[in-house]
Design goal:
529 residues; mainly alpha; Serine Threonine Protein Phosphatase 5, Tetratricopeptide repeat; two-stranded antiparallel ribbon; 22 helices; 46% helix
């Protein structure tokens, strides 16, 4: 029996997708719920679970609980989004961290990603279907790096192995495991492609690349380069080794918008559309609009729709993070994410774009990594690929050495106003210092990776670029410096009650108080070179 015939036979198995999801959800309600995790109270045997059916929900769940897990934290901290809704007087957007929201950002990936993948491992998927195991590993790294980059040390290597507590791995250890898992994934996929040329058995279950394993390899390589750059100040030697491995792989990186990783919304409304259009809970951050307007950026009208407020109709005025918002009606009329032409009800949710790879290569060039190429060429290609991705004409954008970020004026509350905080321009200048060139690279990378706020926030924390407006009202009680800005999220309180021994180890690894002012391992204070 060929592998393809085996897959067809597997697909005909009677287990439904909903049954598998039910198994996964009860396995792990939170990291500390050890009895529930290890006993599988459903009574459904392993033989009843069809491994192939897990992959659609596994891909969708990268953005599980999107509004509370990401939009009401990292999307705003990155300078991309801001909510017009005053959910409560003190909340994440003015640095009073809401435990239930943070818990969603922590628990969801264990319930929806780690648990199903552990189940796949138990079913022997890594031996029986190494190509599927490769996909699972890439998804795991993509999802879980979001968790460690929000919180710091996390449970990783020992999840599901103990009935007493789950220890936390250091960030350095977690990153090391990420690189090893990407090694396995790329090797498995290359082996499969070589042994089964032209076959695409994953086609019907792939919401990202339509079953194209070459694109999955390029994504894995690009993800490796992203992670290598994250740790460039904390572990420069490891960063270089991993970065150069990605840069010199024979299949290369994501290079064109056709390579972009985005999750197709096949089971309902996209999260971005829902929270922006249907719920009116999401508007654009003043910061991203200040750059787009100041740069006369052709992506402005693609990313945004102008304000509908009768006081300033047609103007691209966003909401500054931490603004005092008296009512939803007062601010929902500000500039919005473009849900009319761009971010539609079924628009795939971006995970990583090819333009990011070019900007990562540009930074690697500054760091003189082998295989990176020329910094200016990579920088300009990143801008070009972003314009291509969004279907806009680049014109003379790359020749503009005058335009800079615009100041921000809130027509309804002058206390929210801010002068421009950046003087960076667009045109490349070889006479600039490496630090000044990095400012250009990171600013354009930030504009290109919109609306993916998780990675944008990581880039800002790591480099200090682009320069962002600080929070207007800071409710952290002195735990977070307004000018330095928030560095991480606090662990959910449930970990203190259900995994006390584990969280004690986490705090030792963290090296600081469990609040938003403590820097992560890779977030090294000081210059970038």
């Amino acid at each position: 029996m060929t592998w393809s015939e085996s897959v067809k036979r597997t697909i005909r198995m009677t287990t439904s997708l909903l049954v598998f999801c039910a198994v996964c959800l009860v396995l792990l309600r939170c990291v500390g719920n050890f009895e529930e995790y290890n006993t599988d109270p459903t009574g459904i045997s392993d033989a009843q679970v069809d491994p192939i059916t897990v992959f659609k929900p596994l891909q969708r769940k990268i953005f599980d609980k999107y509004q509370t897990a990401q939009n009401l934290s990292t999307d705003a901290y990155s300078g991309y989004m801001m909510s017009p809704t005053p959910f409560m007087a003190d909340y994440n957007l003015n640095y009073f961290l809401v435990d239930s929201w943070n818990r969603d950002g922590f628990d969801a990936m264990y319930i929806s990603i780690m648990s199903p993948i552990l189940k796949l491992a138990k079913l022997g998927t890594r031996q029986k279907s190494p190509d599927l195991w490769a996909i699972a590993l890439i998804i795991k790294v993509e999802a879980m790096h979001r968790v460690t980059d929000k919180f710091g040390p996390i449970p990783y290597s020992k999840v599901g192995t103990s009935t007493t507590y789950t220890p936390y791995d250091t960030e350095e250890s977690v990153y090391g495991q990420f690189f090893q898992e990407l090694d396995t994934a790329v090797t498995n996929l290359k082996t499969f492609v070589a042994q089964h040329p032209g076959e695409a058995p994953f086609r019907d279950f792939d919401l990202i690349f339509g079953g194209d394993y070459h694109k999955w390899i390029k994504f894995a390589n690009s993800l490796r380069l992203r992670l290598a750059m994250h740790i460039v100040k904390a572990a420069p030697q490891l960063a270089r080794i991993q970065g150069e491995k990605a840069l010199n792989d024979d299949l290369g990186l994501m290079a064109d918008p056709d390579d972009d990783a985005a999750i197709n919304s096949t089971n309902g409304t996209s999260d971005l559309f829902m929270i922006t259009h249907d719920w009116d809970d999401n508007r654009l951050n003043a910061c991203v609009l200040s750059y787009l307007v100041g740069f006369h950026d052709p992506r402005l009208t693609v990313y945004a729709t102008p304000a509908t407020d009768p006081l300033f109709p047609g103007q691209y005025v966003g909401i500054r993070i931490g603004s005092a918002i008296s009512s939803k009606d007062a601010y929902k009329t500000y500039a919005s994410l473009n849900t009319e032409k761009t971010f539609l009800v079924f628009t795939p949710q971006p995970v990583m774009c090819a333009a990011e790879s070019w900007f990562l290569k540009a930074e690697a060039s500054l760091r003189e990594w082998q295989g990176a190429g020329d910094a200016q060429a990579n920088y300009e290609m990143g801008v070009q690929m972003s314009m291509k991705q969004w279907g806009v004409e680049i014109g003379n954008y790359l020749q503009d050495n005058v335009s800079t970020q615009a100041a921000y004026v809130d027509p309804k509350n002058a206390s929210n106003n801010s002068p421009a905080v950046s003087t960076v321009t667009i045109k490349w200048d070889d006479n600039l210092s490496k630090e000044e060139k990095l400012d250009k690279i990171m600013t354009q990378k930030w504009l290109a990776t919109f609306p993916e706020g998780q990675e944008a926030w990581t880039g800002f924390r790591r480099t200090g670029y682009p320069k962002l407006f600080p929070v207007v009202i800071n409710k952290s009680g002195g735990k977070i410096d307004t000018d330095v800005q928030i560095r991480r999220l606090s662990y959910p309180q449930s970990e203190y009650s259900t995994n006390k021994r584990g969280i004690e180890g986490a705090l030792q690894h963290l090296g600081g108080p469990d609040d938003g002012g403590t820097r992560l391992w890779w977030d090294v204070e000081g210059g970038n070179f």
